[in-house]
Amino acid sequence: MASLTPNTVEIIAAVVFAVAVMHTFSTGLFAQLGALYPRHAGLWHLLGEVEVVFGFWALVLVVIMFFVTGRAETVHYLDGRNYTEPMFVFVIMVIAASRPILQAVLALVQKLAQLLPVRDALAVYFLCLSLVPLLGSFITEPAAMTLAAILLRNSFFSNHLGTRLQYASLGVLFVNVSIGGTLTSFAAPPVLMVAATWHWDTAYMFTHFGWKAAVAVIVNAAAVTWIFRHEIAERGPSAVTGKDQGWVPLPVVAVHAAFLFLVVVFVHHSTIFMGLFLFFLGFTHAYQRYQDRLILREGLMVSFFLAGLVTLGGLQQWWLESTLANVEATPLYFIATALTAVTDNAALTYLGSLVEGVSPQFKYALVAGAVTGGGLTVIANAPNPAGFSILKPYFRDEAISASGLFAAAFLPTCVAILAFQVL
């Protein structure tokens, strides 16, 4: 359906997409409307949920397509979309957020924290924003985002952090997860979209992207830890142990880890990982005493957001591809960084992979720019809605300002720019 010359549906889709992007930056307005019109407060509150935005506007687009192109064309378009990633993010979020997995990661963080020459709270905070995002290169970025966000929530956000530290933590988390998945060729969505086409393996990713990203991740985490060291030390220690939940036996942890590993292995095969997920649900039901509430609602909301993005994004190729074509490497890097903030970086790199005859410099600039800008907005990187959903209740009025997030992620993004452009 897509072509370099846009047809009516593609133009409509671009307009709807632009409206959806503006909606994500103005969700606070709907909360105010809920207060002004309490009779329909539930509807306004629903439209004020960032996770609902793209799913809602995707529905609007589908209804318009139904009347403009007919039922057959609309169904054909939807059948041609790949919704594996939204399903995978849902499954990996739920498994990664289970108590046995969280216990294992928290134990690792605590052990490593004891080796660092700083107070425990500072060490745990630093590792949540450095080690865990880098783990995203192995357990996938959505799993790393879920783990890091929940560890930050339990250890720090639940202790009423100041607003500045909340936003600084979120900005660094989003940027570090986006660039921290580039140590391998299979964990970051924007890398997955091009790795097979461009024949990039893990060795290539580490030597060209990974070590630079690791430097930026460590610098970002160390900087925010140092700047807010007094507040972190004051607010952090009381929530670090987490043993009040009850210790989970090692065999149960091992089973959960096995489910996590197998889902990651079969990331491209929704039939298999959804089947594994059903077995996982059965196992958690059999051993409920070692479980907390599974984050099914949060996972479904994030999946709904990503599915809406897939639906809307499929008709944006005509303007994205023309924007990326015939651009020199250095300008392309900054264009990709900026475009990522208003699109999804995986969609951006996928469209870039369709441009034929491009140079190695073009490829590097596109992917590096896509991951660099992945922390600037909630829609920039697929795992961002997961962290957003987990940490949002602890912000003022249970709302995260889009401009506040952008401002908080700006300096960490500049560090990533220096890493990818200078090192």
Task: Explain the overall architecture.
There is one protein chain. With 423 residues, the chain is mainly α. The chain has 2 domains: 8-82, no CATH class; 85-422, no CATH class. Helices cover 74% and strands 0% of the residues. It contains 23 helices and no strands. It has helices spanning 8-24, 27-36, 41-47, 50-69, 71-80, 84-96, 99-115, 120-129, 131-139, 141-155, 163-180, 189-198, 202-227, 229-235, 250-265, 270-286, 296-313, 317-324, 329-342, 345-353, 360-372, 384-391, 402-422. Helix 8 crosses helix 14. The chain is globular and about 60 Å long. The two termini are 41 Å apart.
| Content-based structural category | mainly alpha
Determine the number of helices (DSSP H or I, runs of at least 4 residues). 23
- Poorly predicted segments: 238-244
Largest sheet data:
none
The CA-CA distance between the termini, in Å, is 41 Å
Task: Sum up the overall morphology in one term.
Answer: globular
Percent in strands: under 5%
Instruction: Give the proportion of residues in helices.
Output: over 70%
The run of helices and strands is HHHHHHHHHHHHHHHHHHHHHHH
* Radius of gyration over C-alpha positions, nearest whole angstrom: 21 Å
Write down the domain tally: 2
Q: What's the count of strands?
A: 0
Overall pLDDT confidence: 87
Task: Note the main attributes of this structure.
423 residues, mainly alpha, 23 helices
In short:
With 423 residues, the protein is mostly helical.
How is the topology of this model organized?
Layout: H1 8-24, H2 27-36, H3 41-47, H4 50-69, H5 71-80, H6 84-96, H7 99-115, H8 120-129, H9 131-139, H10 141-155, H11 163-180, H12 189-198, H13 202-227, H14 229-235, H15 250-265, H16 270-286, H17 296-313, H18 317-324, H19 329-342, H20 345-353, H21 360-372, H22 384-391, H23 402-422
Helix pairs in contact: 1-4, 2-3, 4-5, 4-17, 6-10, 6-15, 6-16, 6-17, 7-8, 7-15, 8-13, 8-14, 9-10, 9-11, 10-11, 10-22, 11-13, 11-23, 12-20, 13-23, 15-16, 17-22, 19-21, 20-21
